[in-house]
# Entry
Amino acid sequence: MVGPTASGKSDLAVFLAERLGGEIVNYDSLQIYRGLDIGTAKSLPQNVPNHLFDILDPTESFSAGEYSRRARDVLAQVKGLPVFVGGTGFYLRALLEGLFPGPRRNEELRERLQRRTSDRLHRLLRRLDRAAASRIHANDKAKLIRALEVCLQARRPMSEMWTEGRPRLEGYQVFKIGLNPPRAALYDRINARVVRMFDGGLLEEVRALLDSGVPENAKPFESVGYAEAVAVVRGRMTWEQAVESTQTRTRHYAKRQITWFRRESDVQWLDGFGDDPNVQQKALAMLS
# Structure
């Protein structure tokens, strides 16, 4: 199941899993963390088995490669139809297409790169690997850091490694359903959901995480919504500023997701939201 945030992917995934004897498998990079519920719009399905939710503490690091390994382990255990749902396209691609054999994470190098601005990182990547820089958004700091980490440790362009063999997922027939709701309606849903998050306890959730010992610089706190909530809790931003910033950044994120998933091959696109009964019936007909 692919599509932008707030398009109703989870609703459609649960609908299909209930009717086809399926099991939900998460591929959202934030919903893997325990305690991050309100800001991720996490809603664990009650009537179908689910996997790869709440598997890490917020202080633990995780990579697309680790996700791919765990997801493949889950696939070996799933007895029904595996229904993958989430918003992290790179995790899904890592599972289906595999990853190039690059060097492992280097926390010391990452810490040094983290101190630089995204713009500076992108300029450095253009010098080291122009092909990789052309494929990574200038504001996507996480991917810029990984690309530079690979280039600097391997002493060769990461784009060269992309052409080498990758362990693709074998033995499964993959069917991709994409949700394509009207852009204006999607943005309205995003704006409304952000208000519900902040009204519904996001600040309290963040305070509890901070009080439990999760540091401000924990990776999940860099994400949209959580960064703003931390800023409000620490007195660096007002509630109104946080809501507006989260709405704007979430809309931009949705636009990037649409661009990413449009590049996926063989997606069967449905116009509308995943909680629309007409869309649900069309999706069910595709799989029946």
